[in-house]
Predict the 3D structure of the following.
Amino acid sequence: MKKIGVLTSGGDSPGMNAAIRAVVRKAIYHDVEVYGIKYGYYGLVTGDIEPMGIGSVGDIIHRGGTMLNTARCEEFLTPEGREKGVEMLKEHGIEGVVVIGGDGSFRGAEKLAELGVPTIGVPGTIDNDIPFTDYTIGFDTALNTVIDAIDKIRDTATSHERTYVVEVMGRDAGDIALWSGLADGAETILIPEASYEMEQVVDRLKRGNERGKKHSIIVLAEGVGSGPEVGQRIQDETGFETRVTVLGHIQRGGSPSAYDRVLASRLGAKAVELLLDGESGHMVGIQNNQVTYAGISEALAQAHSIDKTMYELSNQLSI
Ligand code: ADP
């Protein structure tokens, strides 16, 4: 293999740049040329493809976002669109592709591999919702962003003796809410993986109040419901002054944490190694701090799950 391509796709995450850098440098180290495919599968289909030298990835390891840009591409969902992508790769002489992205991007990577293009997926998403890897690139940074925000909210919640609902990202996966809630000592954590009754939330708040607790933080994953609606119900049912903060896209940005930079470097390099070993249709991941890999289809067939013991622990620690 003498020429490979790299793209970032779907939602961006901090550390994608560090992963691109690792792919480019690792490939060049092995005398393999690298092409950057801009805007994810959109650039693949339209031929927005450029060579990347060693210097092209200089000074990006600490930057959030992705220098290759990212996009969602409807056309790639069709067989015709994917054929166009394969043709573009042939035109450029690209023999293998590294796809950095979330589960949607991995489904695209799976299809590309089925069409005979050696393809390896690198998990880049803040949601930590990809099976088979303990962590995805960007999760740690997003968590630190959320924790920083909740710490600040806690200061004002304490001063004003208010209840705060903080809505964080996570449509189907509660990892950000669970980890940040545990790290920040939230009184209640609401995640899609665990059903809840508003009555229980209200009882808990009232019990805390009776014990002299003057403020509370409730962390809510967006998949559970809208922060403003949940906040209003809590205020109506408890009578406690309640404020809501929806953190939104700040969770996607920022300089990647040390952990994410190291993870991205290790996973990006492993992806190139696999391509050079003639592998295809795999995703790289980290398990027990060991870099490893598995078939994308096999990994996506598993459902992502949260660590139930962590959820129970958060309940025990916030009595
Ligand atoms: P993420 O990778 O963050 O989960 P998306 O789910 O939006 O993001 O997926 C990103 C892109 O991956 C889509 O816009 C599409 O081009 C491609 N993709 C997603 N699902 C498939 C699929 N089943 N087949 C082919 N391509 C897909």
